[in-house]
Amino acid sequence: MAVIIVDYGAGNIANVMKALKYCGLSARLSDDPQEISKAQGLIVPGVGAFSTAMDRLQAKGLVQPIQAYAQAGKPLLGICLGMQLLFDESDEFGQRAGLGLIPGKIIPLPTETGCKVPQMGWNDNQVHQSRTLTQGLNQQATYFVHSYYAKTDPKYIAASVDFGKLAVPSVVCQDNVMGTQFHPEKSGLVGLAVLKNFKEMVDNYDFSRN
Questions:
Q1: For position 39, what pLDDT does the model report?
Q2: Of 6, 89, 93, 124, which has the most beta carbons under 10 Å away?
Q3: Distance in angstroms (rounded) separating the CA atoms of residues 190 and 140
Q4: What percentage of the chain exceeds 70 in pLDDT?
Q5: Which long-range contacts link 56-59 to residues 24+ away (Cβ below 8 Å)?
Q6: What is the largest CA-CA distance in the chain?
Q7: Tell me: the pLDDT tens digits for 166-192?
Q8: Ordered domains of the chain (ranges, CATH)
Q9: Which residues are catalytic?
Q10: pLDDT over 90, % of the chain
Q11: What is the pLDDT of residues 124-167, one digit of tens each?
Q12: Is 126 within 8 Å of 161 (Cβ atoms)?
């Protein structure tokens, strides 16, 4: 069974697939709950609005399968909007519940930082927790496109970037559930290294225990 990219019309999938293939991961798109439950690794991608994405996941009956996969302790990675969906709720276009896999809330980037919203372009990561996913990421630049960010307990923030005086989470982790606010598939060799770190986690996970 391959790594499964959750298929809910998230967009930008071709680049993600290409990057995963480059990293040696066998990956395919699926919206089949059975395939999701048996995946060797699960990736939740995403661009666009939080509420629209959750509507699509609900309509396809994918919320519970994703939650069950995470609760089983298997490796799950959210990318950009997919990372934001991992949290409890968002303020984007009205309050909306998320997947509830990491405690916290998605709120707008403040304009009073003096930085342009959305954050669009390259920014340097500061690693706060040594985890498999963050290996080689400290002081390295990755590519961001977002107007909202995760407000969460520091214990879930593995890395951040400076947005004016605000430290914006760039990598979040809750045990086996991980997310990157940046797009690793658009972040050159650094982004590919992050995906290779995820591959290492997939390769080392003992799926026989599930």
A1: 95
A2: 6
A3: 7
A4: 98
A5: 56/8, 56/9, 56/10, 57/6, 57/8, 57/85, 57/99
A6: 51
A7: 999 999 999 999 999 999 999 999 999
A8: 3-95+102-204 (3.40.50.880)
A9: 80, 183, 185
A10: 85
A11: 999 999 999 999 999 999 999 999 999 999 999 999 999 998 99
A12: yes
Tokens (6 digits) for 12: 């930008």
Which position has the token pair 């968002």?
90
Tokens of 170: 């760039």
Q: What is the 3-state secondary structure (H, E, C) of the chain?
A: CCEEEECCCCCCHHHHHHHHHHCCCCEEEECCHHHHHHCCCEEECCCCCHHHHHHHHHHCCCHHHHHHHHHCCCCEEEECHHHHCCEEEECCCCCEECCCCEEEEEEECCHHHCCCCCEEEEEECEECCCCHHHCCCCCCEEEEEECEEEECCHHHEEEEEEECCEEEEEEEEECCEEEECCCHHHCHHHHHHHHHHHHHHHHHCCHHHC
